[in-house]
Amino acid sequence: MKPWILGLTGGIGSGKSAAAKCFSELGVHTVDADHAARWVVEPGRPALLRIAEHFGNHILQSDGQLNRAALREEIFHHPEQRRWLEALLHPLIGEEIIQHLALAESPYAILVSPLLIESGQHQLTQRILVVDTPEHLQVQRTIARDQVSEQQVQAILQAQAQREHRLTKAHDVLLNDRDLGWLESEVRRLHDFYSNLRGDQS
């Protein structure tokens, strides 16, 4: 029986990573889209060679790794360069995600992605779980975690899918407005439900 795929998403500071960790500890195979995005640009991978050819070798560090700060600088000021980069990387990231999801041996597998809906990655999933948090808590948690200003958090919130839009796509919503113990109990409840679902019912 092939595992079905659950998409797990949520805004910055919502606790989606903490929720994903809880699922993982229950034995669910999880694949993080952010990790896949890093894997495709590792040294020796074709994408990194293409990026260096396109932008020049200053985009590489002395050890051959991608210089992320330099790349961010290139695409921040030039939207057409960002589109070029996305056109190169998105299909590769999609392939990487599919390969890693295919290794799942649990009844269902989870694709964790902050941009699940915006990137179209939700098309790889049969069901969507949104970890949702009131905005004031998102801001508080992100400032505490990343040591950034409230303005920076607000800018990221604006760039991510608007909360209402994300919620309209959700099959399930986990309201994460309490402590970690609450989150763990909610994940266990959902895990019991998901473990009994078959792909065609999801």
UniProtKB/TrEMBL annotation:
Going by the UniProt record, its keywords in alphabetical order are:
ATP-binding, Coenzyme A biosynthesis, Cytoplasm, Kinase, Nucleotide-binding, Transferase
What does the entry list as the binding residues for ATP? G13, S14, G15, K16, S17, A18
The EC number(s) given in the record are 2.7.1.24
- State if Transferase is listed as a keyword: yes
Q: Where in the cell is it found?
A: Cytoplasm
What biological process terms from GO does the record include? coenzyme A biosynthetic process
What reaction(s) does this enzyme catalyze?
Answer: 3'-dephospho-CoA + ATP = ADP + CoA + H(+)
What Gene Ontology cellular component terms go with this record? cytoplasm
Q: In which pathway does it act?
A: Cofactor biosynthesis; coenzyme A biosynthesis; CoA from (R)-pantothenate: step 5/5
- Output the Gene Ontology terms for molecular function: ATP binding; dephospho-CoA kinase activity
Q: Which Gene3D superfamilies match?
A: P-loop containing nucleotide triphosphate hydrolases (3.40.50.300)
Q: Which InterPro entries match?
A: Depp_CoAkinase, P-loop_NTPase
Family membership noted in the UniProt record = Belongs to the CoaE family.
What does it do? Catalyzes the phosphorylation of the 3'-hydroxyl group of dephosphocoenzyme A to form coenzyme A.
**Annotated NCBIfam families:** dephospho-CoA kinase
What's this protein's name?
Dephospho-CoA kinase
Q: Which organism does this record belong to?
A: Pseudomonas pohangensis
